[in-house]
Design goal:
The complex is a heterodimer. By secondary structure, chain A is mostly helical. Chain A has one domain. In chain A, 76% of the residues lie in helices and 1% in strands. In chain A, α2 crosses α12 and α7 packs across α8. In chain B, strands 6-7-8-3-9-10 form a six-stranded mixed beta sheet, with helices on both faces. The longest helix of chain B has 14 residues. The termini of chain B are far apart. Chain B has a single domain, classed as Rossmann fold. In chain B, a hairpin with a 2-residue loop joins β4 and β5. Chain B contains nine helices and ten strands. In chain B, α3 packs across α4, α4 crosses α5 and α5 runs parallel beside α6. The chains are: A mainly alpha, B alpha/beta.
Chain lengths: 308, 243
């Protein structure tokens, strides 16, 4: 708990010492951290590898932008409708994807997300295709003008802190214990009276909801949404962040998201072939810390403590 | 009332019949032993009763309720519990957490998505472990305890649910003589109101514990009766005892 408070205090103090570029970069890390953490609910705690989670980020982002720009509803209504609609979509997708597990589940989530990605590209009348949807403004909740980098930073930090806390409560709850049980021994869990399918479906919907929250933040940050946000690449980057940081841990996706965003946004400014570097970094992590950075560092720390 | 009633049950794997037109009735409170050579269909029968496998034909009733189309967890909520031939527990978790998951399975608390795991669950889990003599190890990870103790945990998990019908799939398999004695006394101490159906290869032990015995061969019941009747039947000797 102390570590989380120290981290939160550090993040609250960051705008005092960091310039606008770093404040914006950290806001992007927050958004990606929520996205990765929601994947972690499925992969890390439920043992359900998904390659379609960008669907929820992308659909919520598109819905939010289109409702505001084309339908003319307020920011609040657009955000809430986008969250509700995307969560409902997750419920529907869960009914389909959870007919399988393992590789079958992975392929079904991928297939469903590819349908949405293709739709976003081809339904030009609605999405403006490859041009993306532009022209969105940021809301001003409670009079806080989010156009300012620091204001958006604190807004994103508050949402991220709430998201991580609520996801932590979920995995620490009786339902979360049942979810971990279904990951490790689904057959045994059924023999103990747990409805394995329903536990997974509820988790799928919950993960979809947080994916949607990251999408709403994403579209407000960028004021723009493009079909690439729905792509396999985006889903895979989220999955990589979870694996690199440490799946099944609360801190893992945060660390993984930080690594991915730093490589994408910071290192790419200095290294032209940053994609190669990102691949190399993941190979190094998987070779030396196959369980991910957070559990790996904890293991090394325990070894170091035992030697002194 | 019959605890378990099976009629004309059929199950085939890729055209190879594992259970063929099997009918069986087990009275409430009975101790029934299922025996048969390897491949006779004993574990398949358990898997069909629990719903781990769907039946191709026939019906299964638990306490006069037809459960043939019920999912496993629904059958468990009617009072069915089982152990597995190959131990399938949660090795990274503590013994008390293993039992807590068992208690949680029948508790309405299992749908609580934001509360903490209640202390009372672990208190009850410790009480269950105390009944099988493992209270001192409650907070040790399951992976760090001996094989015999894992078997006791598995049986404790089933008993924690206060089942009405308990299926034990080779509960003595792989145990040392001392461990076997411990598990035997644990099974002997199961309350009379619990119906126990057991698959076991250790004939000396199994015949001691069972009141009635069913002999399976190629997925069919070939002999059924008391210990004396089954042992005396030449068909049992032919397919199982080998003489």
């Amino acid at each position: 708990m102390t570590r989380w408070i120290v981290l939160l205090a550090g993040l609250l103090a960051l705008p005092l010492v960091a310039g606008e570029y770093y404040i914006n970069l950290t806001s992007q890390i927050f958004i990606f951290a929520i996205f990765a953490s929601s994947i972690n609910l499925l992969l890390g705690y439920g043992g359900l590898p998904t390659l379609g989670h960008a669907s929820y980020l992308g659909v919520a982002a598109y819905a939010c932008a289109l409702l505001y720009l084309k339908v003319g509803v307020s920011h609040w209504a657009a955000a809430l409708l986008a969250l509700a609609g995307t969560t409902l979509m997750a419920a529907g997708f869960g009914l389909i994807a959870l007919r399988a597990s393992g590789l079958g589940f992975l392929m079904l989530t991928l297939a469903l997300s590819q349908v949405l990605w293709g739709t976003a590209y081809r339904w030009v009348a609605m999405t403006d295709g490859d041009n993306g949807v532009r022209g969105l403004s940021r809301p001003a909740p409670f009079g806080l003008n989010l156009d300012h980098a620091t204001a958006f930073y604190f807004f994103a930090l508050a949402v991220t802190a709430a998201a991580i806390w609520l996801m932590a409560r979920f995995v620490g709850s009786p339902l979360g214990a049942a979810l971990r049980g279904t990951r490790d021994q689904p057959r045994r869990m059924a023999a103990l009276g747990h409805n394995v399918w329903l536990v997974r479906w509820i988790t799928f919907i919950y993960a979809g909801f947080w994916g949607a929250v990251s999408g709403v933040l994403f579209v407000y940050y960028n004021k723009y949404i493009h079909p690439i946000s729905l792509s396999l690449t985006n889903s895979a980057e989220g999955l990589l962040a979870v694996i690199a940081g440490g799946s099944g841990t609360l801190g893992g996706p945060l660390v993984g998201a930080t690594i991915v965003m730093l490589l994408k946004n910071y290192v790419s400014g200095y290294v032209e072939r940053w994609n190669m570097l990102m691949g190399f970094v993941f190979v190094v992590i998987v070779v030396f810390m196959p369980e991910g950075v957070v559990p790996g560092v904890q293991r090394l720390w325990r070894r170091f403590r035992s030697k002194i | 009332m019959a605890a378990l009633q099976i009629q004309n049950l059929k199950k085939a794997f890729g055209g190879l019949p594992a259970i063929s037109e099997l009918s069986l009735e087990i009275a409430a409170g009975e101790r029934r032993l299922i025996i048969g050579p390897n491949g006779a269909g004993k574990t398949t029968l358990f898997n069909l009763v629990t719903g781990d496998l769907p039946a191709d034909a026939g019906s299964i009733a638990l306490f006069d309720k037809d459960v043939t189309r019920f999912a496993t967890h629904r059958r468990v909520h009617l009072g069915l519990a089982r152990t597995y031939q190959i131990i399938t527990l949660f090795p990274k978790d503590t013994l008390e957490h293993n039992i807590a998951l068992s208690l949680l399975g029948l508790s309405k608390l299992r749908w609580n998505a934001f509360g903490r795991l209640p202390e009372v669950l672990y208190r009850d889990a410790k009480a269950v472990l105390a009944r099988v003599g493992l209270e001192a190890m409650a907070q040790r990870p399951l992976s760090e305890v001996a094989y015999g103790d894992k078997r006791r945990v598995e049986i404790a998990m089933a008993l924690a649910q206060k089942p009405k019908l308990l299926l034990l799939d080779e509960p003595l398999a792989g145990l040392s003589r001392e461990e076997r004695a411990g598990v035997k006394s644990l099974i002997a101490g199961i309350p009379r109101e619990v119906t126990v159906v057991m698959i076991e290869h250790d004939m000396d032990t199994a015949l001691d514990m069972a009141e009635r015995i069913t002999v399976l061969h190629y997925g069919r019941v070939i002999v059924e009766g008391t210990r004396a009747e089954v042992v005396a039947d030449p068909r049992t000797r032919e397919v199982y005892l080998g003489h």
